[in-house]
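Appendix B. Raw example, untouched.
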Amino acid sequence: MILPDNSAAKLGHLFADIVSGHDFSRFDEIVAPTYVNHNAFAEPGREGAKDIFRAMLAGVPDLKAFAEDVFVSADGSRVVGRYRYEGTHTGNFLGYPATGNAFSMRSIDIWRVEDGRFVEHWDELNTLDAFIQVGAVAPPRQPS
């Protein structure tokens, strides 16, 4: 079943609300159990999606997500979102020890929707920018 545009768009906004609220059990509302996640950091399935955000929260306990744009395909089968994540790096973040630095990271996410839930996901994250902000990676040298 393909959702009307407004219902599918609500999924994209609810995703940001769930991440900001840190209640990842609520992913059950928007993510199908057989969720396919094309993200190298995430394990398969709905539980994999929950685990990646739990890991992020361990390193960034004040993590907040903001939906900057949410679009729905003409047939309602795809949701595309542009998100901004903000927080303070006070714990282990994807293998990098705490620095106490604030950071902002952006993503573009694409979900395929069936029966009112996300069933498949692709994303592009600006993790390099986040790692530079937290001090895990040196910034590129500026030309002289």
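End of appendix B.
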